[in-house]
Amino acid sequence: MGKRKSYIILFGLLVLVLALCGWGLNARFDGTETVHYRFEASGHNEHNLTIAIPFEDYREYRAIPRPSWDDYSDKPNNRSYYDFFAEYKLIANHPDDDYIIRAVASELEETSSAEGLDDKEKAELALNFVQSFTVTSDNETTPFNEYPRYPLETLFERRGDCEDTSILLAALLTEMGYDVALLLFEDYDHIGLGINMPPEYHMYGNSWIYEGKRYWYLDTSGKQSIGWCPEPYHQTSAYVYPLGE
Length: 245
Known about the structure:
Layout: H1 2-30, E1 32-40, E2 46-54, H2 55-62, H3 77-92, H4 98-114, H5 119-131, E3 134-135, H6 138-141, H7 151-157, E4 159-160, H8 162-175, E5 179-185, E6 190-196, E7 207-210, E8 213-218, E9 239-242
Parallel strand pairs: 3-4
Antiparallel strand pairs: 1-2, 5-6, 5-9, 6-8, 7-8
């Protein structure tokens, strides 16, 4: 009788544990994910930023089909490549995750205001934030060789390759009022980001000109400041895709 009672107690505990696990999984997958970021900005100051991302929104973004090269392969070669990557602008500007982009941009704006940062330093702060993400390749984290992530996906996963971090930073800086452009280095299948700064700022480094505007390179996958561009991209031409157009 005592042994039977012990089994009943153990069974009851097992049911309780499974119920708690089920509740936890339900909260994790049907609720929100609280994502915390820790990053260093200029002067080695540590910053912390926390946002809540609804898992359902993340799941919906994961289900969106990505641009397919097959849709452009029958077009003239001098336009198909350009038009294909123009879809990356649509990913950066997608409206459904604007609330998350605004939340992160607001946090960066508040930090910038509290520290008395000018426009260039504020852009550097946003760059430092994105540079804190883990750099991964698409074929390591997805079944695809090319998988451009929407900004919400990259924020949720805290990782991505050059195109993912460039798309995310493009969305953030656009929300913060900057003029930015995605940069496509066709010969190297590389996506970068450029920022147009007011003439009163004395800028140095690598830049690309589009319709009279100069866009300075942002190293989203590294740790360098505005204007620094890694080899071999710094000596090559690039397609320029301003987000404001």
